[in-house]
Amino acid sequence: MNGVGRCNMQNHTGNAGAESKAEIEALTPEEPQTKVTEEFDDILDIIGSQGRFQKFLLYVVVCPITAIQPFLTLNAIFMLFTPEHWCHVPGRDNYTDLETWKIRTIPLDPTRLQDAHGHPKYSQCSMYGEDGEPEACKWGWEFDTTDYLSTLPGDFAWVCDNSAIPTNAFTASAIGNAVGTIVFGHFADKYGRKPIFFLTITINIVFRIVSLLHPSNVKFFYLCQFIIGTAFPVMFIAPSMIAAEICDYVKDETNYYPSSVQSMGLRLHLDDLGDRMCGLPLVAWLCSDWYLIGLSTSVPAIAIYIYLWYLPESPRWLLSIGKHEQASKSSNNKSEDTSVAELNSMLRKLVAKQNRKKEAKNIGVWTLFSRARLARNTVSMNVLVYYGITLNTTNMPGNQFVNFFLLSIIELPSGWAGGVLADKLGRRWVQVVFFLVCMISCVGATFVIHIITLELIAVVLAKFAITLTFLVVYLQGAEIFPTQLRYTGSGFASTIGAIAGIFAPIIAQLSIHHLSYPYWIMGMLCIIGLVVSAFLPETLNQNLPETIDDANKFGKGVKFWSTRSKSITSTLGSLRTSRRSTAGQGENALDPPIVVQPD
After folding, report:
1. Is 364 in the same domain as 510?
2. How many domains does the chain have?
3. pTM score, two decimals?
4. How high is the mean pLDDT in each 10-residue block of the chain (599 residues)?
5. What count of other Cβ atoms lies within 10 Å of the Cβ of residue 356?
6. Same structural domain for residues 119 and 8?
7. Which segments constitute the Major facilitator superfamily (MFS) profile domain (predicted)?
8. Is residue 529 part of a domain?
9. Beta-carbon neighbour count of residue 146 at 10 Å?
10. FRET label pair with 336: which of 89, 137, 484, 538, CA 20 to 30 Å apart?
């Protein structure tokens, strides 16, 4: 009697579980052993999850894509930089010394602090009139060309009465982020990770270049920045999300859970991002012109389309929407010992099982709040990302290129440290500790405002800590939400952070009143982030939730003061163990396993 016949008989006998075990043990070497698959994790374990394909995906696909992203998404920081400027006053021909001419023609502005000691700078928007009294600029402005030959605010006079234009452009982009995280996140869950990723890449490239053609039309420029902003969040998280759904699952007696390769992929993603962010100020410094900066950082992104042939669609997502044939094709690229026919059979039966649950209907953003625990996890993620984004609005003295480099280079050790600590100690408490470190650094900076070196050290340490929490947030985003809502959930969790970005310039502008105000605010936000992060469930060594019900039960029954432990068996693992124990108990058994006899 073959394996299939045994399976059919087991469904009609009272002691099927014992018979099944005895028959499996009695299999001869010539008779292949039956594979039992409960979830996609079981199939992934069978076909392999730590092979050459995963390494190829991480090192050859994810890293190069990440290498281009900072140039494509952060170039506006340099293009919209407003250099030091002052009123142009005719008649300087007889004065070779600029400082002497400023003393004669430009009044001091006591509201502008030159340094920590409170020395005032020259006014940017007024000059001395014929009567010796300050008046508004009449003949335009002159700009400091020490760092830039040309910027958008300099070429189009986006200063003084028009000084809000650069800030409004960033605000338009932030609003786009808020919209895009929901819209494209939902599309990625509905239409697939891969096509939406390349769609967002296309949107970013096209509208980056279009925005360079006619920036003098401010409304059109705002529109371009908004559209560009919609594409950024999903474009950023897509590579690591695909890797999280394909890569590296470790198996013990009862559980399948994401292990260090998933965090390694995200770590490489963030470290490579930080590495290329270090190169962005160099490119901006070499170009020194807003138009050249825009072209040189946008056009090379076309190279990402090479990966149309190499970046796979997530088989986990394909399976969640019932496309077992496409999932088989995608999964078989990673399989070395499993035949196509066997894999097709396993996936087809697993899809049939999922269809019986009827959970794929009417799923959208609202589903995140349909269950109490899932809603709590969603809101918590939102708050964390909110404060993470806000904390990036630090004010640092000195050269802009050097500042950007320092804040970028610190992400390299932060990313690696975060990955190691998150794998060793768990996600939740690592995040709590480094929110505390960030809070202490921000508050500490307020006491060393007059000592520039110490202030820089405090700010860089704060950036180190908040970057580490970013890594943990993205890991949790990939691990807390169910497969059917993984992009939607992560995108929605980023929405509040994107909305916070709208207010980030306001926080930065508080330094006009006192240099310490932004640090105090960010320190307080850190405290709130610390408290909220403590109530997120631990995700290390836990099963990825596949369904809405799984996600709602995630973290249930775990004590608040618990830490990462390999002995923890999640609710999902218990459910799967229960399912295996009920195998063969008749037609009324709870979710009987899918038994596949290899061809």
Report:
1. yes
2. 3
3. 0.68
4. 38 43 42 45 56 70 74 82 87 75 84 59 86 86 88 90 85 83 81 86 92 91 92 76 60 40 48 59 87 89 82 73 61 50 55 51 54 49 42 56 77 77 80 88 84 82 83 70 63 63 68 76 82 74 64 59 48 40 38 40
5. 9
6. no
7. 62-541
8. yes
9. 8
10. 484
